[in-house]
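Customer escalation, tier 2.

The customer says the design service returned an amino acid string that "doesn't look like it belongs to this structure." They asked us to rerun it and document both sides in this ticket. The original structure tokens are below, unchanged.
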């Protein structure tokens, strides 16, 4: 008898959790644009520290280790040898150089 009650409570809890998850997903999907807004626009002609930090997804004042970690993570996803864009890879490298204080690279595109 007690195992049936425990099973019933477990099924009820799973159903309640599933309902809550579906409601949360629906609320996020129908969220106002301000919660899901991405940067609009292309790259600037001359890269700034602000743009470099946006490309790498970090603050302008991030330390060297964080910049290198972010650069590596993004390059793994966008490397031209793995099907990524050479233009995006160049911009990611330029952003790393900008945040590390190295000489800015000029774009060939």
């Amino acid at each position: 008898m007690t195992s049936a009650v425990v099973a019933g409570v477990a099924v009820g809890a799973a159903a309640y959790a599933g309902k809550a998850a579906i409601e949360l997903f629906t609320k996020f999907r129908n969220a106002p644009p301000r919660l899901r807004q991405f940067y609009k626009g292309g790259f600037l002609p001359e890269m700034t520290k602000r743009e470099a930090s946006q490309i790498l997804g970090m603050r302008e004042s991030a330390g060297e280790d964080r910049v290198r970690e972010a650069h590596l993570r993004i390059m793994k996803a966008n490397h031209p040898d793995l099907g990524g864009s050479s233009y995006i890879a160049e911009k990611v490298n330029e952003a790393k150089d900008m945040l590390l204080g190295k000489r800015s690279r000029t774009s060939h595109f």
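Tier 2 assessment: The sequence is consistent with the input. The radius of gyration is 23 Å. The chain has two domains: 2-32, 49-99. Sent an explanation to the customer and offered a walkthrough call.
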